[in-house]
Structures are given as structure tokens and as C-alpha cells.
Amino acid sequence: MEPAPEQSPHHVYPDHWEADVVLRDGGTARIRPITTDDAERLVSFYEQVSDESKYYRFFAPYPRLSDRDVHRFTHHDYVDRVGLAVTVGGEFIATVRYDRIDERGRPASAPADEAEVAFLVQDAHQGRGVASALLEHIAAVARERGIRRFAAEVLPANTKMIKVFRDAGYTQQRSFEDGSVHLTLDLEPTAESLAVQRGREHRAEARSVQRLLAPGSVAVIGVGRTPGGVGRTVLRNVLGAGFTGRTYAVNSAFTAGQDTIDGVPARRSLGEIGEPVDLAVVAVPADRVPEAVADCGEHGVQGLVVLSAGYAEWGAEGRDRQRELVRQARSYGMRIIGPNAFGLINTSDAVRLNASLAPEPPARGRIGLFTQSGAIGIALLSGLYRRGAGLSTFISAGNRADISGNDFLQYWYEDPDTDVALLYLESIGNPRKFTRLARRTAAVKPVVVVKGARHSGSTPPGHAVPTRRIPDATVSALMRQAGVIRVDTVTEMVDAGLLLADQPLPAGPRVMILGNSESLGLLTYDACLAEGLRPRLPLDLTTAATPQDFRDALAKALADEGCDAVIVTAIPWVGEDGQAEAGDGEVLAEALRSAAAAGPAKPVAVVHVEIGGLAEALAAATGTVARPSAGGEAPQGPQTPQTQQGPRAPESVRAPEAPQPPPEAEAPGRIPAYPAAERAVRALAEAVRYAQWRRQAAIPGKVPEFLDDTIDEPGAAHLIDTLLGPDPDLRGRQLGTDEARGLLARYGITVRPTLPAPDPDAAVVAAARLGYPVALKTTAPHLRHRADLGGVRLDLADEDALRRAYGELTELLGGPAELQPVVQSMAPRGVDTVIRATIDPAAGAVLSFGLAGAPSELLGDTAHRLVPATDRDAAELIRSIRAAPVLFGWRGAAPVDTAALEELLLRVSRLVDDHPEVVSVALEPVVVATRGLTVLGASVRLSPPPARTDLGPRRLPNY
């Protein structure tokens, strides 16, 4: 909303304060600054507030606002006096205001850093988390305007408001004065306030998804009067799945006498239905969607699935139409799947909803599936159906204008019906949030991701996604750090999903292989070695093996304490006449399943070649088995009880602690079957790596306390402010050598000094100052860190050697002005490494490590972790590169001081994490000796700190 013309011109309307938020019940609302145009809205809002709420706000009966009050509450300077409103359908449902005050409580201007704050929430909307969301946003506004504390006077009877302040997580003080509670809140974010904010975000977003997946009633808008068409197809699918709620068909073209269609009530608008509708599936042409959305919003629909095409996938005009669709839906408090969506499915017996274009809903299972592509969604549904797999929920979000994979991670985290989350993503709109949510979810259930558009850089139509500078290999490494199982193809995703959903997690990488084909067993053995597993030599049961032989061998393998997983290979039997016999697949399947059910909980996978009915029989489990955790143990951590999901979602979602796994069933479960050894082994290897991550994540790493004693954070902050200056260049500033050395020194990082050598005499003077032996190096950009080009001379023991080297260098590579030579004292011999930290606009701060030179630059052998890094991250970082053996005594060499290297990595991580202005650090080379290390070169770049959307108040993506 734009300000009125008479508004103070030097305090422009702060449109960046506008935000859409998800409330506690899953509905949305808009938060925006109050303007002079809001007088009528304010009066109307106040008239709908109860006398009790008015009394709590003004400490006295206050039945109506005077003209003076209205003027005061709608005129703000957006600095010392700020008012925010929460709107639904364009009308106010809550307001908050702060006024800057001095130490005596009188109106003031900066530099006064305290403000008095007061809230008013319409009674009909109390309990939805409106005040909590408003507090987050008004606090962020206040911090931006230099206010550090809020003061509030609250009547003791106003327990709801006291609880809002108390539960916010800010440092606060309370006292009782003159019959009221006086509260003072320090607005500096704390770990507790951030945890509170993220907990509320989780509950709200999970609830918003739950309202879409478990509606009590569904209206399909755009149902044709004759068979065929998208709307009629969806209606048929909703009815065919046996939806447990009420269903309605809506089309403005229905005649007055047409009361039913396909056996359900037919209405011309939602208003004619006469009762609330929870979910609307919109299947009308794009130009008619606004009318349908308005009808939904005005009649209390909670969420939309928009199947209609003609939006951002059609170009600029479609993008504008899509943005307007989102704005319109959110203004009514509704969330959207789509547009251009394929639909959603919930197989729960309590819901049985197929609001999609899929003619046959999948069987009920324990896999949750999210895709951004309808075509990929169709392929995945088909592939899972052929493999006999079932789903708990399926969502194909189309253009993903609102609801995203992040929202479904919030929901699946606690969903008792989902054991594995599968996501096909073409972009990650909020990578920091995705990483945070994926890490939390992966701690209790596997998250498998296929990332499309890895090299094209394309983004979902109509979305403004931050440009990623880091390579795709880095993105993959960061996903694995968060516990995400990233695979390359949808086939691999299905393969991994089936094993993870139906089998326990392996306790380790030891694999036993048994079967009736020596050749197939050897192929499986080779594939295991290639994936980093530890297989035993295959057990050949010979082609004469019977199903009983398979059962006995599998039972023995599972009982072996030296075995963590079993792969069974099977080919058709060869009869006495030399003819291949497919055999009875169902008999073999039953033998394998009974052995697996009777033995210890270890994963079993089957590789088969043309055995009729085997895969189908293995998939046809007689019961649903909950997948145990790694090693057969239940997940560690706080447990919360789960409730049965009904056709109407419960009023709240539990706090985001680790959910309990469902109880194990007694019947044997499905065993995944694969047509190729490589596919089975790859799926098992992903399960092994994930199980290892789960075990390690149960005991999180930490940042050693000893670092605090050698880090001068305030001194570094002051130096950064000085270097950037009062009016910093938005493009950033590369620090000089001495400036970089001074900043790094404040974090205990010592860079060995270099002295310029513009001529031989200057080189000799520099060497005398530093002490022999010395190194002579060029610093020209095209020769920096290129010892292979002859730009470095080492171990120069005296003046003669130095002058000789200087002459050779300039004769070979160019004059001193071009080479920019420097002299540096020699460091102890060791392994040359490189440490970097960069701020990526999409992924955040990334810490990288590799060996200097060809291994990292040519072969890409570099490891990455997100900042802040823990002691475990640092240890894993140096051990995860392929060339790591060089650091640990390769070919008889002495191991280097990896402890010193880990400490240096932690110091760089702390520097970047403490000071977001440090957007790039490169230490190259870092020579790691048997004792200690030496940083020979360093570069640092500063820039005004980039926006951190993951630390601000909760908000949905802007349109």
C-alpha cells in the first residue's frame, strides 16, 4: 500500500516492512505499516473489539476512538512513531504501535534507544498467534531504527499479553508498579528467541500443509456439465478414492435445476453451498481464476489447489498474473498449491483424498513425495506403482508459487504416516532454510532429493531465486552435511526410497552376498567395492538351490554378527533339459521374507534376473512395518505422542521435538527387488552413509572454548567498521596485505610477513631483515600460486643465492614491475593446503578445504561445510578429500599436524560467522608441518553485510 500524498516526504513509506505470515492455525495474514489512508479501517476494526480488550489496551473504559485518536494512530514518521497492522481480506484484525521515549518515559528522538509498545488484537482472532508474529516484526523494525529495548505496561489480568512477552525468548525484566506489570524487553536476538521463532514457524507451516492434506470438505471449481475436462476428471478421482469428507461440484454455468452431478451436490458458487468448505480445487481458465479465488476467500475456504495453466510458464504476462494470484489468495488467508499443479493425494484411511489428475491413487504406504514437475510426478507415481510401493502423501506443486518443499518438510517431520521423504526439486528458493529443515528432518527420517536443472541454472517460473555462485558439487556436499541423500536420477530416488521405507537402517558397511549365480554375485561384489562398502566374497548356492536353500542361507547371514546387510542374487533355475525355468517367484519371495522376519533387523535387498512374479511377491507385504533406526535402535531425543489423523486437521501441531516412530508391526515387510546389481548396491550404499550420519548427528559437534581466549571479536568489528568507512562501496573492498594480516591476527591467525623486492638490492635488504633462508616469489596475478611456472624460488640461503635467483626470475618471466616480487622467510617443510570461506547468496557462508595446486584446482578435490563449523565438521573436512592420505603419512611420510589444521579451520569459520561483512577469505598456501603450520598468503574481501532472510522475522516469499 502506498502512503498518502500528505505523508512526510523525508520518511518514505517503508514497503520492505510489508510481509505475509503464516499464523498458528495455518492461515495467512499480511503485516504492513499503517498509513493515513487507514482511518476508516482503524475505526471499523476498533468497533469489533470487545470492551474487555479495549480496557486491557487503555486501562479504562474506551468505547470508541476520537478523531484525535484516529489521527494519532494513523500518522507515523516511521522512525520514532511506528504502527503496524495485520490484515485479512484487506481489513485490520490487529495493530501494534511503538513510540520512542527517553529515560523518563517522555516522547523522544534518536539517540534515545527505548520505545513503549502496545498491541490490540480483535477478539475473533485471538489465539491464532497474531500478537507473537506482530512482536517479531515490530521488534525487527525497532532494531532497524536504532531502538534496543521495548517497555510495556500490562494489566495483571491480561494474561494472554503477558504470555506473549514472556514466551518471546528475549532477555526481559518484570516489575509490578502502580497496579500494572511493567515489562522491559531487550530486543537483541538471542538463541532462545531464535528457537522460539523457528518453533512457531514450524508449527504454523506444518499446520498450513495439514489443512490442505486433511480437509473435511472439498469443492471442485470448474466441473464440466458433460463428461471429460480437467474439473470433471478431478471430481471423478476424488470420488473414486473414497474421500471421507463432503464433496461439492461448482460451476457458474450450472442451470438452476441441476442439483447434482456424479452424485454430489452441484452449485453455481460457494455461497450456494451453505456451509464452510476447507479445500477448493480450481480448474477454470486463468482469466476466471481471480473470480473463483474471491468467491473462495469470501466464504472461508482454507486452501487452494490451482490446476489452471496460463501463468508464469507463459512469459511476462503470465508471471504478473501469477503474482497477483498469490497476493489475492494470501489477502484472504489462503495458501496455494500451484498454479499449473498436478494436484495432491493423501492415502490415509481417515482421509483418502485424490485431488489430482492421477486416475489411480497409489496404495497406502510410508513414503511422502513432493515434485515441482507434473511430468516427473506422473513418472514417479508410475514407477512406484510398478514396484508395488505405497505413498502416504503426494504433491505436485507446478509453478510452486506459494507452497514449497520446505513447507512439506515441516509437515513430514512429525507426520506419523511418513517414514521417508522424497523430493524432486528444480530450485531451492531459500537454501539456508531448506538446509536447516532438512537437517532436522533427516535426524528422524531419511530425506532423498533429486535436484533438476543442476547445470542450466533455471528457476521455477515466476520465482526470484538467489543466483548461486558455488558449483553443483559444493551444493551436493552441503546437502550431505545436512543429512540429505542426494541422488542423480528419479530412478535412483525410487530405488533408495524403497529400501529406506521398507528395511531397517544398516549398522555398518559390511555386506554379505548370496545367490544362485556366481557371475551375478561377483558383479554385486564389484559394485559394493566401487560404492565404498565392505563386502565378503559371494556365497554361491549354485543353480540347483531351492527356495529353502535361499531361506537357510539368508537366515544364517542375518544371524552373523559380522554382517550389517545382505544382498540376495537370483536367476532362473536351469532344468535337467538345459532349459531356463523362471521358477515360482512367490515361493522364493515367501522364503526370503520369512527368513528376514525371523532374523535380526538388518536390511535385505534382492537382485533378480527374469524370475516371474518375484518382485511383485516381495513387494506384496502382508503388513506395514515401521522402519527401525540404524542398528535397530529407536531414534534418540525427546519424544512426543502422535495423534490419529482425521478428516479435519487438529487445532495445533505439536512442538517440534523428534517424533516417535510408529510401533512395529508383527507381519513381515516388503523386500525391495532390483533388476540390476548396481542399482541395489547404490541404494544400500546411500542407506549406509545415511545411517552413519544419523549416528554421528546424535552427538552434535561443538566449537572449542579455548578459541574464545585468543579471539578479539570487538577489536575485529571496530577494524572492519574502520576499513569499510561510513559510506561503504556496495561492491565491496579487497583488503591490502597488511590490512588482511591485521584483521586475521585478531582471530589468532598469523600470516607470515612478506616484503616487497622491486630490485635485487631491495630483496637483499628484505632478506636481511627477515633472516635467511628465504623464498623469492612473484605476486603477479597470472603467476600467483603457480610454482609450476617457475615463479617461486625456495631455500635461498645467502645473498649470492638470492641475487642469482632474482636474475633468473626476471630473465625468465619478465621485469620486476610486471612480476611484483616479494621476499618471505622460509617455513618448515610440509604439505601445502588451501582454506577458503565465501558467502554465497543462495547457500550462505561456506568453508572449503583442499590441497593446494592441482588436486583442488584441476581435479576439484575440495571439501565443503556450512559455517558455523564445529570441531566434528573441521575433522571431517580434512578427511573427506580424496587426497587426505597425504596428510596422514602416505607412503611412509610423517603425518602432519592435523590438529593445528582443524583449529585454523575453526578460526576462519568463527571470523566469517561473527562478521558477515567478511564475504571472502582465502589462505593459500597453508603449509602444514609435522608440528604446527604456517600461513604464507592471505586475502580478505569486505562488503556491507548481505541480508540474512533466515534470521529476520517470519515471512513468506514476497511477490
What labels would you give this structure?
27 helices, 959 residues, flat, disordered N terminus, alpha/beta, seven-stranded mixed sheet, single chain, eight-stranded mixed sheet
Polypeptide structure, described:
The protein is of the alpha/beta class and 959 residues long. The strands form seven sheets. An eight-stranded mixed sheet has the order 1-2-3-4-5-6-8-7, with helices on both faces. Strands 11-12-10-9-13-14-15 form a seven-stranded mixed sheet, with helices on both faces. It has a seven-stranded mixed sheet with strand order 17-16-19-18-20-21-22, sandwiched between helices. Strand 5, helix 4 (130-144) and strand 6 (149-154) form a beta-alpha-beta unit. Helix 6 crosses helix 11 (405-414) and helix 22 packs across helix 23 (799-813). It is flat. It starts with 18 loop residues before the first strand and ends in a 17-residue tail after the last strand. 47% of the residues are buried.
